[in-house]
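Reading group handout, session on sequence-to-structure problems. Before we discuss, look at one worked example. The prompt was deliberately terse, the way you'd type it at a terminal:

> structure Molybdopterin-guanine dinucleotide biosynthesis protein A

The input record follows.
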Amino acid sequence: MKKDKAFLEIEGQSLAERSLKVLKTLFPEVLISSNRPELFTQYELPVIGDEVIGRGPLEGLYQGLKAAKHDVVFFVACDMPFLEIELIRFLARWSLDYDVVVPKLQSGLHPLHAFYHRRCLSAIKNNLEADRLKIIDFYPVCSAKYVDEKEMGRFSDLTKAFCNVNTPEEWSHINKTITPI
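And the output record:
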């Protein structure tokens, strides 16, 4: 994108602001994980930086889980403009029984729209130390609930709920389909 996706705007509101609005409605604690924490100071929320730069989202997941006050944490990417409160609540129903609760669509898993329990910390640390940086690579050593499309069937537009911005073309398409939250 050649620009920090968190600060792309829809209707005068950054993607970060849109996400924070939803997350503050749902959770008593909201943290921001970033490899560039200085960019997020205006939100007056704890910003958790990466301890080791260059290890991607798995490093952010690890640092965020370590910093959180709660045992179960919902992680979401900053580039998902259409978060649905009821869908997140639906996924939360399994969050105490499993180490990972992750949506599984036909397009694949959505590890950056998922719940993680602190019990994952050692598995994540092991993968970081072994330079296995793909988030889903630690799932086999944890108890994971893969919530498939059939289970999420009552939600009308899963494609929209799980869309994220990776290219200027996707961003252009998203801007043509926006609806206020």
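Points for discussion. First: Residues 5-178 form a domain with the Spore Coat Polysaccharide Biosynthesis Protein SpsA; Chain A fold (CATH 3.90.550.10). Second: The chain has a mean pLDDT of 93.
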